[in-house]
Amino acid sequence: MSTISTITKIAMAAVALAGGTALMAPPAQAAGWSCYGTWDHRNITLPGKPDIDVSARSCVYKDGNTRRARIQLKWEPNLEGLGGVRFDKFSVQVRLEQNDKVIAGNWCDPRDALNGDGGSDDCSTSYVGSSYQYGWTGDGKIVYNVNNDGLGDYVWNLHGSNEVKTAPNGLEAGDEPEPEPLPDPADTPEPEPAQ
Questions:
Q1: Which of these, 113, 134, 115, 117, lies nearest to 60 by C-alpha position?
Q2: Which letter, b or e, does each residue of 82-105 get, where b requires 16 or more Cβ atoms within 10 Å of its Cβ?
Q3: Nearest-CA neighbor of 55 among 38, 78, 35?
Q4: Interval 88-103: pLDDT, tens
Q5: What is the pLDDT of residue 183?
Q6: Separation of alpha carbons 46 and 171, rounded Å
């Protein structure tokens, strides 16, 4: 018998003799976000104004039995400080899904921020508790209307996140961190000549 199981049995016996109840915690699980591997990207043409580059990706959070979905958003106008009103509408929908069934959702409106300088924003669902371990993903879409283009709303469906689930070892699977980018060769100094 291992030392840990012997200690556990002794502790539980002591609690039982004292007339109490012992609660055993499950093994610790890694918590974190799992995002779609690459950012969805659009260069949005703006009539009479510099275009804007917008990127978004879907993510899902899992910590034990707690789940949440998030859309990460970042944008960069092609020329800072110019543009005025770019969008009449810019709405982000985020969905927490379990096996493609919507469990929680939210709409966010970062339009005022996108009409300003470059930046980033997040749109998240509420936290949801569930002991079901498999099939959890984040998903969403963006609905936008370009100012003065006369074409109405555009719908941009985003790629869903990777699934988070519990691996057989009790740790989260599908939550690998993004790799560090490789250094730019232009930033690498030339080697000094041998003397």
A1: 134
A2: ebeebbeebbbbbbbbbeeeebbe
A3: 38
A4: 999 999 999 999 999 9
A5: 63
A6: 46
Residue 139 pLDDT class (50, 70, 90 cuts): very high
Which region, left, alpha or beta, applies to residue 100 given φ > 0 means left and ψ of -120 to 50 means alpha? left
pLDDT in the model for residue 190:
67
- The Cα–Cα gap between 148 and 49 comes to 10
Residues 65-75, mean pLDDT to the nearest whole number: 95
Helix (H, G, I), strand (E, B) or coil at 114: helix
- Asked if residue 164 lies in contact with residue 62, where contact means CB atoms within 8 angstroms, the answer is yes
Phi, psi at residue 11, to the nearest 5°?
A: -65, -45
Which tens digit of pLDDT belongs to each residue from 38-49? 999 999 999 988
How would you write 82-95 as a 3-class SS string? CCCCCEEEEEEEEE
What is the phi-psi region of residue 99: left when phi exceeds 0, alpha when psi lies from -120 to 50, beta otherwise?
A: left
The predicted pLDDT at position 33 comes to 86
User: What percent of the chain shows pLDDT beyond 90?
Assistant: 52
Distance CA 186, CA 28 (A): 44
Cβ neighbourhood burial of 17 (10 Å; 0-12, 13-18, 19+): exposed
Query: What's the angle, vertex CA 41, arms to CA 37 and CA 47, rounded to 5?
Result: 170
